[in-house]
């Protein structure tokens, strides 16, 4: 789902928003944060943008096929139309 670089980047962004007054986050905290983020993202059952785009294309193709079949059925059902 998310590769290591994406997870590292997300962890860095979260750590950047921690106020300076709290000091530098120790390595143990960073590891816990990274693990927590990974669990939360897995629990959300997210997909990558690439997977989403692929499924969108599949859906569009399927929809076009369905519309063509519906049109053929509508034409077939017209009175006086040869099959």
Strand content: under 5%
Largest sheet: none
Helix-strand category: mainly alpha
The CA-CA distance between the termini, in Å, is 49 Å
Total strands: 0
Q: If you average the pLDDT, what whole number results?
A: 82
Q: How much is the radius of gyration in Å?
A: 25 Å
- The domain tally reads 2
Helix content: 55-70%
Shape: rod-shaped
**What's the SSE pattern?**
HHH
Low-confidence stretches: none
Q: Can you count the helices? A: 3
Written description of the protein model:
By secondary structure, the chain is an all-alpha fold. Helices cover 70% and strands 0% of the residues. It is built from three helices and no strands. Helix 1 packs across helix 2. The radius of gyration is 25 Å and the shape is rod-shaped. The two termini are 49 Å apart.
């Amino acid at each position: 789902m998310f590769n290591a670089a994406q997870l590292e980047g997300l962890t860095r962004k979260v750590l950047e928003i921690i106020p300076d007054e709290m000091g530098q986050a120790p390595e143990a905290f960073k590891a816990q944060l990274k693990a927590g983020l990974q669990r939360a993202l897995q629990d959300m059952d997210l997909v990558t943008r690439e997977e989403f785009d692929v499924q969108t294309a599949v859906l569009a193709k399927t929809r076009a096929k369905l519309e063509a079949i519906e049109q053929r059925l509508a034409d077939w059902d017209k009175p006086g139309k040869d099959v």
